[in-house]
Amino acid sequence: MKKLHILILIFLTGFRSIAQDTSVNILVRADDMGASRSVNFAAIESYEKGIVRSVEVIVPGPWFEDAAALLRDRPDLDVGIHLTLTSEWSGIKWRPITQCPSITDADGYFFPFVWKNDKSPESPYLTGVSWDIGEIERELRAQIELGIKRIPQVTHLSEHMGCLSFSEEAKKLLETLAMEYNLSVDLSHVSRFPQWSGSEIPASMKVENLRAQLEQLPAGDYLLVEHPAYDDRETQGLGHVGYENVAEDRAGVLKAFTDPKVKEIVARRGIQLESYRDFRSRSRADTRPPVSWVNPEIPQMSGLSHHILKSKAMGHDVGFVVWTPDVYQEETEQRFPVIYFLHGIGGNETSDAAGFSSRLAAAIERGDLSPVICVFPNGGRSGYRGTVEKMIVGELISQVDTQFRTLSNAESRGLVGFSMGGAGSVYLATVYPELFSAAASMGGGIRLENEELRKQVETSVHVWKQRDVGFFLVNGDKDRPQAFKEFAEMLTSAGIDHQLRVLDDTAHNLGHYFDRSLPELLAFVARHIDF
Predict the structure, then answer these.
(1) In the predicted model, is pLDDT for residue 12 greater than 70?
(2) Which of 4-18, 381-395, 485-499 has the lowest mean pLDDT?
(3) Cβ(335)–Cβ(406) under 8 Å?
(4) What per-residue confidence (pLDDT) applies to 289?
(5) Which single residue of 45, 176, 238, 464 has CA 20 to 30 Å from 245?
(6) At 337, phi and psi to the nearest 5?
(7) Residue among 253, 191, 197 at smallest CA distance from 217
(8) Tell me, what DSSP letter sits at residue 288?
(9) What are phi and psi of 136, to 5 degrees?
């Protein structure tokens, strides 16, 4: 009877993962209008003849007025103000539209980069100076107000080169400005489109790469950001150290965006091309219930219990589930390692508790795994960042270590997660390398375009190597198989123990991940945590 109950739980877990919305929605965005006339017309062509549905405009750019005129003639084209604090190209420069000497060089231009560029260490960069947040705010307000004045259909804000991700104060400023000017669009549920382009990928491969990703893209909402341009004399004058093939590279993007086969795949698969305006309308009409932070109804299963954390970080109670093995009650003095399992988007603390715990129980019974405690936090739709991140690392871990007989040290603590939770596991292990000894992701991913996150990885590898931290990274061949490619390359280069797996004939289905990778995943995690 016990085995039948476990099989039913496993079946329901797999069925829940399958029975999801099958639609594919992509927000295709073309960046950097205003930087050059070639970029302006390439972005328009990508919209009129291709799959682009939103464009971003650099207001201080030398060709901003030309971009604004083109966009006023196309009121249906969605537009974002591409907030700008850098001027990266060697052959052309732009200045702020206000007086802000703390964020400009001796000639009055924006600095080339936000962070230090290792390929051009002599180049000045924003985070290397004593920037003034008041001057930054004044400049960004001026950019927003001029952009709105010239282009009536502006719907949102975005960051050129991640220019506001360098400090918490700057991030908060972005949120404040977006809300104040009513240019906020909730994309917290939207995933990054799988990698298909980038300066390191030959232009000749971009069309085929985009076709391939569109053919295999699973259901969900995605953001695809790229930079179309023409390979002409104007674009050939753009570039900086480390990125000299700008014209060829961005012409490859334009070709992919307007490729007839790409448009045929979009039509055949019923892929919806959406804009920020569409996502904004949808989020306002969103009928999803608000996140329920306390969900005490859990399956009747041995060792499973529901608990409440009175979270100061969140400002309200948050539920979590704990599973303890049979031996926990029998050996009243023994202490146990802890695995934190992070659920996917749309889930809560109860979503995967029974399914994953039943697999743990079976592995322990077979002798494949020594007894462990498992904790299931409620992460809402947070991506395990922000206040949820603070709640887990600053409050939940200490409460669990106080309330249960854990081995309360980093060497006996691991992370496992699915989808959003898989990405969250890797993220938390990266930002808090001293707190965990293993992180495993099923169907997740990590994007390292954010220079701050990349630098965090580079900083953390020294701690990981010293502490023998390991990463188990598994995706399906139909579920972003390249999602950890760049991260895994960095782990390999640093000599960090990891396994990178791609499962055959596997889409975004937790039941399939359990069946096809969990024994190996648990064995890997067990090697890296102390019992």
Answers:
(1) no
(2) 4-18
(3) yes
(4) 67
(5) 45
(6) -65, 165
(7) 191
(8) P
(9) -60, -45
